[in-house]
Predict the 3D structure of the following.
Amino acid sequence: NKKAFVELLFWKSPAAVYEMTKGYGSLQEGEGTTRSRVPPWTPQEEQELRELYWKYKEVEGGDIITAILAHLPTPGRTRKQVVKQLVRM
């Protein structure tokens, strides 16, 4: 590949270097990544999140995200995931 030298100008993770040397697409899913994929939000979860947001939005002095996490039916969602989804919606 004549243009491979351009890729060497930028920082690479070990997984990216492995793919460069062994061929792109050579990593199996889940290999070389330190974090697992976040499961997508289902329409039911989005609706529940929306309802919880409107319910706890007007509570004075409380943290909305903490209240939502306490009442979210799907366990395993992090604070960051909930905030990101609320912003996206």
About this structure: The chain has a mean pLDDT of 79.
